[in-house]
Amino acid sequence: MTTGSPARKRPTAEPPGNGARRMRALPSPRYHQVYVTLRAWVRDGTYRPGDQIPTEPELCRLFDVSRITVRKAIEELVREGWLVRQQGKGTFVQLSAARPAASLDLDEARSQIADLVAATEVRDHVVGEILPDEETRVALDLPVGRLVQRASHLRLLRGVPLGLITTFVPLDVAARVSQAELARQPMFELLGKAGIEVARADQLIGATLAGVEAASALDVEVGAPLLRLVRVVFDNADRPVERVVALYRADAYQYHMRLRSTPTRG
């Protein structure tokens, strides 16, 4: 990504009144809903490094929330390094918060997933239909109230918990996937078998701390360091068809990449 100008596109497709009704329909705190949406705009490139986000009054109108609510969400994003305030100018996407994505061939990604599947075993596979959290809903571009299929499982390496993997897919996509194979093959592969052509994926890798659920599943203490991998998969119509959230034990998982130099042309 390159630094954009403050005049880039604004998320005006949905009238503020509809956005406000959606916000009121969600159970999470209002400031957190604003926080998640703003962060999603940075992550998906709606606002690129250097771009100015809407002003506080504009965000208040867009989400129908108070200035205190907007300010709390922005302060949290500033603290985490996603945004930066410039005195007298406004709030901008931090230049280091959304660096240009490194490219990895999709077949190489499939190979890495296949290697992990071959080396590990699955336990505690659970599938159900749920209302997604706000970040998942935004990532999958779904309207408020639309259910998704949530499938989670634990991957073990030589009997030791390695990763807690959770996938979210729209129900119409899930209906095309073999439910019998969910416990044996990753959704990434099952999408292809269902005739859904995977065109690209956005993947983020970072650090997090184990919450109660992850700590219990991975046999670590609450607050233990984990590697968090989030991947959103898009079909050939550029529709998001899967969101994966994988939590791996930092003491047991390594992400291996080979870096090669590109020959210069004379």
Description:
- The protein has helices at 16-25, 30-43, 56-63, 67-80, 106-119, 134-139, 171-174, 187-193, 212-218, and strands at 83-86, 90-93, 121-130, 148-157, 160-170, 198-209, 225-235, 240-249.
- With 266 residues, it is of the alpha+beta class.
- The strands form two sheets. A six-stranded antiparallel sheet has the order 3-4-5-8-7-6. A two-stranded antiparallel sheet has the order 1-2.
- The longest helix has 14 residues, at 30-43.
- Mean pLDDT is 79; it is low at 1-27.
Note the main attributes of this structure.
266 residues; alpha+beta; Arc Repressor Mutant, subunit A; Chorismate lyase; six-stranded antiparallel sheet; 9 helices; 8 strands; disordered N terminus
